[in-house]
Model the fold of this input.
Amino acid sequence: MKPPYRMKPKTRQEGFIGFDYIAKTILSPGGKRRKGVDVFEHCKNVGFVARELIRRQPDWLRDVLFPQGSELVAAVHDIGKISPGFQEKIYRALNQPLGMVSPELDRTIGGHAAVGQVAVRDVGNFIPEIIGRHHGAYLIFPKNF
Done:
C-alpha cells in the first residue's frame, strides 16, 4: 500500500516553510549557542533509545509496562516542537528570531504540547494524553476535531 501524500521538505534538513525545525540548542565550548539536533533526528534518537531500553527489560516487566509500540510513543513525544511558538523560542536563543509569533503563544494555547496532541489525535485516547501531560498540558479536543 502506498503511503499517504505528504509535502517533502526542500532538503532533509530544511522544513517546507524555509527554516530548520530545531529541537534543541547546544552551547559550544566558547559559550556560543548554536543549533543542535533537528526535531526529526531528536524523535528518531528517542525512539531508538526507548526501543533499546525496553529490549533490555526482563520479559515479565516488559510485558506489564511496555505494550507493543511503546517506543513509537516515546519517539513522537516531542513532535510538537514544530509549533511556531517553540521554534520562535529556539531561534531567539540563537539570536536569529523568525518574527512569526511570540514565544508566549506556546504558554497561552498549550504550545508544543497541544501541537503534539493534535499530531497523534487519531491513534487512540491515551497517546495524545500522554504526550500532552508529559509537557505539562492536556487539551481536550472535540471528537470530530
Summary: The radius of gyration is 17 Å. Residues 47 and 74 are 6 Å apart (CA to CA).
